[in-house]
Each structure stands twice: as structure tokens, then as C-alpha cells.
Amino acid sequence: MPHSNPAGTVNVVHLTDAHLFASPEGSMLGLNTRDSLRHVVRQALREQSDTHLLLCTGDLSQDASVASYAAFEQLTAGFAAPARWLPGNHDEAQVMAQVAPELVQPVTDIGPWRIVMLDTAVPGAAHGWLQDTQLSLLETALRTSGERHCLVCLHHQPVDIGCAWIAPIGLRNADALFAVIDRHPQVRALLWGHVHQEWDQWRGDLRLLATPSTCIQFAPGSEDFEVSQQHPGYRWIRLQTDGTVDTGVERALDFEVRLDFDSPGY
């Protein structure tokens, strides 16, 4: 569904990896995930007052419960902008669609941009894979995008980010993804979650972006599973009319990160 944006520039907020539970008391390593999401959202609402689109790229839930998705929708309802969700490895796409069917649309046109949301989740597995149906969806969406610039979103990382333990649970057929994208130079950026840390690099003219989790953070450059004491955060993105992408990460510094390594973790 197209959305008008008279100013041209599309202002996006990216939230990812909230890991909410059915219970409001649900936590990871002692960190209450609803509380951390609440702090991140409050900060984003203060700092991004003119948001046109909210993108949420998976692991919105930890237990794939109806209650957790309803909570995520309620906690992010303050944005006066349409939202789009896609599933991660902890999500259930059918449950997401049951709770918020209007938010799981794969293609959204807004201003001079087309946003494509891909499902890389593999039932019962932590790694990602793009099924042929998803690759076909992407090919069609890009082929029919006309003069629009394109942003492609997914959950699993399609490149090595320098964390050895994360590499095996990334997107295992990234070559197939890039084969499609390389045929369509109007794709300006790839955006994902899953890695619980910031990433901003280039692959030729393609911007590669990952965003911190709204809950616990993974330590960059780690060989084995390791969390950091960094604050939860979000990414703001300015999709410009000429196809350039301006972006940055903000962290909820007013949220006290107190991890309990004796409690259940990731």
C-alpha cells in the first residue's frame, strides 16, 4: 500500500530483536525485555518526531506468543506512522500475522522508495535461509519498482560481521540474495537485525546496516558467545530522494543495564 510523503525524504525508525515474552516479567540475563523496549521507544519518540515508517526486523518475541506480539504492538503504538514486521528465528510468522495482519505486508511504497521485507526464518533453526518464494518475491518487487529506490530488509545477517560464533547462524544462501540484488542497482541498502550490534559497511555501492537490539547486546568481534554492557538502541534512517541513505544509531542511555549471568540467557 503506498503512503504519501510530500517532503520526499522518508524518515525511518528501525527496531529489532526485542525478545518479548508472554509475561510482562520476562527477562534475558536478568534484563526485562519489555522495560528495555519501552525505554528505547520513548527515546526514539523524543528524537524522531517526524517518523514516516517503523521497521521491525524480527525476534520481536522470544516465545512466539500472541501476548508477546500484542505487547510489542502496544509498546510501539506511539509512532504516528505505519509499521512493518518480519519474522526472526524466535518468531512464528503465522502468529505475527494473526495478531497484526496489516503489519506483515512484504512490499511498501512510500515517497520515492520501495521497502521490501523478506522472511529468512527456518522453522526450528537459528540460521536463516531464503526460500525460492522469497527470492521470487524480491525479484518481482525490484523488477516492478519503476523509478523508486529500494531498501531490502531481513532478519539474518548476509555477510560476515567478524563474530565467529554468529557466522553459522547467519543467512546461509546469501549468494542467492546478492545474485538478485546485483541485477537491480536501485537497491541502495540492506537492513537487518539478529546480531544485536551495530554494523555499517559497504559492498560496492550497497550500504549494509545492522542495528543494536532493544534488549541485550552481543560483543563485537567475539569468537564465542559474549554479551556487552552497551545500552539497547535503535537506528534512524533518512531515505533521500536521490537514493542516498543517511543513518545513525542512538542508545537509551537512561536505561540501567544490569545483567545477571546466573539467570536464563539468550
TrEMBL record:
The keyword Electron transport does not apply. It comes from the Bacteria. Keywords: Hydrolase, Iron, Metal-binding. Residues 11-197 form the Calcineurin-like phosphoesterase domain. The keyword Hydrolase applies. NCBIfam families: PRK11148.1. Belongs to the cyclic nucleotide phosphodiesterase class-III family. This is 3',5'-cyclic-AMP phosphodiesterase. It comes from Pseudomonas parafulva.
